[in-house]
Amino acid sequence: MLSREIMKQGRFRTVKWLLDILKGTWLGHPLHPILVHIPMAMWPGALIFDLLSQRQIGGNAMVRLSFYAIAFGLVAALAAVPTGLVDWSGIKKEKPAWKLGLYHMLLNSVVAILFVVNLYLRWPTFREATEVDRIPLLLSAMGTLILIGSAYLGGRMVYEYGISVARMSKKKWRKVAVAGGANLVPPE
User: Fold this and answer.
1) Whether the Cβ atoms of residue 79 and residue 111 lie closer than 8 Å to each other
2) What is the pTM of this model?
3) Which of 131, 134, 167 is nearest to 33 (CA)?
4) Assigned domain for 97 exists
5) How far is residue 187's CA from residue 174's CA, in Å, rounded to a whole number?
6) What whole-number distance in Å separates Cα of residue 4 and Cα of residue 9?
7) How far apart are CA 85 and CA 124, in angstroms?
8) Does the pLDDT value for residue 132 go beyond 80?
9) Domain for residue 93, yes or no?
């Protein structure tokens, strides 16, 4: 019986340690918003490189840049998924932000699938092509547009509902505010 308790405590510590990493506790800042900026920059960047290749600017360099931007964005997105899931799991289901998070996650899944297919279609020709084909270009445009919509929902979760913002207790926030010179109403 005692060994089971010790094992449970060990697993609890391991899970807490992993959750703290995914939440960004070690940074003093949520990790998800840091990671999502990478695909948010890479995938629209890939679209820009695609458009440049369509205008015969840059040749194969633009095709390769686009390919690698998509690949790098996918790797970063894979790292962002567990951090987003941990943040979302902390939202009560009855709160409006929970549903926004669900839509945000579903849209991001669609975006990731579009860019996986996009990368797959580019694979055979990216080393030699001087112009991106029309279907990968269309996938880049669709993925980027959906990504912007999903980013808007993620922003609403933070700015409208305060998701992953207040990681300190109200008492600690009051101390910070008072130290900063805020004129607070005394707590009830």
Assistant:
1) no
2) 0.80
3) 167
4) yes
5) 9
6) 9
7) 34
8) yes
9) yes
What is the model's pLDDT at position 2? 45
Which range marks the domain in which residue 157 is found?
Answer: 29-179
Section 134-158 average pLDDT? 97
Q: Is 132 exposed, middle or buried (0-12, 13-18, 19+ CB in 10 A)?
A: buried
9 lies in some domain: no
If one counts the domains in the chain, the total is: 1
Asked whether residue 11 is domain-assigned, the answer is no
Burial of 68 (0-12, 13-18, 19+ CB in 10 A): middle
Q: For 23-54, how does the pLDDT look when each residue is reduced to its tens digit (9 = 90+)?
A: 888 888 788 989 999 999 999 999 999 999 99
Residue closest to 136 by CA, chosen among 62, 41, 27, 58 = 62
CA distance 24 to 79: 13
CA 70 to chain centre: 15
Give the number of other CB atoms < 10 A from CB of residue 89.
Answer: 11
Asked if residue 158 has pLDDT above 80, the reply is: yes
* CA–CA distance, 11 with 7 (Å, rounded to integer): 6
Q: Rounded CA gap, 187 and 177, in Å?
A: 13
